[in-house]
Amino acid sequence: MVNMSRPVRITLAVVITLSLTPCLGFGIFGFLASGEPGGNSTMFRIGYTTSLLIQLAAIFLLWRVALRTWRCDRPDVCKGCGYDLRGKKTGPCPECGRGPAARKAS
Hints:
Elements: H1 6-33, H2 41-67, H3 100-105
Helix pairs in contact: 1-2
């Protein structure tokens, strides 16, 4: 995900989140239904709880990576917001307003 643009990372995060949502739903249903008589409900509850926490952590980390602004050392990318400045030679960044001197210094 490092070399992908932010919109691509967010789109990928949405797709993966939507694909994990049914798993979360079935996990919650399994957790609630694990108290059936004759079964070892404690082990099932521990398993379902662990599975749900792992899935939620994966979704959280996925979105954290997707929304992160990656810093780049390329001279044609704004250091403040990551905006592509290849067509803009002078003046401030149109995205964040950072001036050219501040862009090169930081």
